[in-house]
Amino acid sequence: MSEHNIGTHILNRYENECVKLAIYNFEIVKDCTYIGKILTSKAEPRPEIEKKNTDANRAYYALLPPLESQSVPRAEKIKIYKT
């Protein structure tokens, strides 16, 4: 068990991968999503960039059929494209 002083609180790391801060216990994880951002234990930006690329590709391919359709008027396609 190791202890680290953080301000007036003592942070204890236990063998079961938990962190105790004051009266709270926190599980140690490799990554998590917080306010839409992917946080990793290594603080890498790569997973966040990959998630943005995946989301952009999903949106693009979801809109591709109406944009290629000849039955949708051009004005409507422009509205779809701009939003």
Q: Keywords for this structure?
A:
single chain, 83 residues, alpha+beta, two-stranded antiparallel ribbon, 2 helices, 6 strands, 39% helix
Explained architecture:
The protein has 2 domains: 43 residues, no CATH class; 39 residues. The protein is an alpha+beta fold and 83 residues long. The N and C termini lie far apart (54 Å). The strands form 2 sheets. A 4-stranded antiparallel sheet has the order 1-2-3-4, with no helix packed on it. The chain has a two-stranded antiparallel sheet with strand order 5-6. Strand 3 and strand 4 form a beta hairpin. The chain is built from 2 helices and 6 strands, in the order E-E-E-E-E-E-H-H. It is rod-shaped, with a radius of gyration of 23 Å.
Tally of individual domains: 2
Order of neighbouring strands in the sheet with most strands:
1-2-3-4
How many strands, what sense, and barrel or not for the largest sheet?
A: 4 strands, antiparallel
- Tally of strands: 6
Terminal residue distance: 54 Å
The number of helical elements comes to: 2
Give the CA-based shape.
Answer: rod-shaped
Poorly predicted ranges (pLDDT <50, ≥5 residues)? 5-15
Helix content: 25-40%
The rounded Rg comes to 23 Å
Order of helices and strands: EEEEEEHH
Rounded mean pLDDT is: 76
Binned strand content: 25-35%
Based on helices, strands and strand pairing, what is the structural class? alpha+beta
Topology:
Layout: E1 2-6, E2 9-13, E3 18-21, E4 24-27, E5 31-34, E6 37-40, H1 46-68, H2 74-82
Antiparallel strand pairs: 1-2, 2-3, 3-4, 5-6
Task: Describe what is shown at a glance.
By secondary structure, the protein is of the alpha+beta class. Helix content is 39%, strand content 31%.
